[in-house]
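Recall that a protein's primary structure is simply its ordered list of amino acids. Everything else, from secondary elements to tertiary packing, is in principle encoded there. The following example makes that idea concrete.
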Amino acid sequence: MFGSRKEDLPSPTTAPATSPELTATKIERQPDSAKTPAARGFLSNEVSIEGDLSFRNELLIDGKVNGKINATGTLIVGKNARIRGEVRVKSVTIQGTIEGNVFATERCVLEPGGTLRGDVESPRLALDENASFLGRAKISANRG
């Protein structure tokens, strides 16, 4: 289990007369942050925020936010989330509820059970047939 595997052991016919010298090899483990290019934030369903919220990379909200959200990253609105206010992000995935206008510079996705009550402006809009959308959509090319 912890020793050498059978494949790694020399066969008796090819083994040298003296045992080979063992050399230590240093293995450096990269931190988890090196594997994940962007940090991910999380607000649980027990969190309630009154006021404006901003972030840079990625944020998953499963609680309540009453205020504007302004970000250069990706917002994931969890199944238990309830957001009331304007949302301005790079990308948003909605599984919970947003009551307010959404401005996404890349994409807006409404997944099954997701609800958007407000207007949306984004170059890409994807709506699942089991999502709810009450508002207007402006789909235009992202001109940067």
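The CA atoms of residues 41 and 59 lie 5 Å apart. DSSP finds one helix and 16 strands in the chain.
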